[in-house]
Amino acid sequence: MLSKNKIKLIRSxxxxxxxxxxxxxxxxxxxxxxxxxxxxxxxxxxFYTKKLEEAxxxxxxxxxxxxxSKEEISKISFLKTPSEIVAICKxxxxxxxxxxxxxxxxxxLDEIQDPGNLGTIVRLADWFGIRTIICSENSVDLFNPKxxxxxMGSFARVNVHYTDLEIFLAQASKLNIPVYGTFxxxxxxxxxxxxxxxxxxxxxxxxxxxxxxTAKISKRLTIxxxxxxxxxxxxxxxxxxxxxxxxxxxxxxR
Length: 254
Prior knowledge:
By secondary structure, this protein is α/β, with parallel strands linked by helices. 35% of the residues lie in helices and 22% in strands. It folds into two domains: 4-90, CATH 3.30.1330.30; 98-253, Alpha/beta knot, CATH 3.40.1280.10. The protein contains eleven helices and ten strands. Helix 4 (53-57) links the parallel strand 2 and strand 3. The longest helix has 16 residues, at 238-253. It is elongated. 35% of the residues are buried.
């Protein structure tokens, strides 16, 4: 049986402050958690309903595993429709390795605020084989329950770092790493020569890329509307724009 203190602790992990203080986050859902059990993510506690009892008998894990009622799991779930399994996981510690980064295609996110957008971008990075995302310090937290859920488990395969982007890009400049940025005006991405490695900056949902980071960009790109010169929407959603940009970078190296 879940104690009141345990329920209180798990519910408190909705807050970034408490996630930072405890070094823990919540993951939910059968597919996601069974994937996490095969990943490098450390699960400290696992709570499940009787429906998954048979499946969990076969699982080898160092996690504390506890059978709970549906009523109890609904108290610790952050989903509108509670899943049958909830995991308490440890936030991994990551370090930037510039020897590796200078050989990769990297996404840099400038103050992305919407959890769904960040989660979708992490999934896109996973799909296109992008292993590193660098976020500004004011971007939405990866371990926000809504972000974790929208990644569909991809967060376990993509390294997401939070840092001062001006300092990060200054170091990239010293290493002569090309820096691309997406704008409403720039070179047509389908005509541009894109490198296999480099940095792609995607801007804030409402304000785009900040002036400070714009100054660091070596190549401005735009995704042209179709047909040209006809009224259209003001801009693309940042996650959709990221998908188009990643697809074109990968298409060119094929």
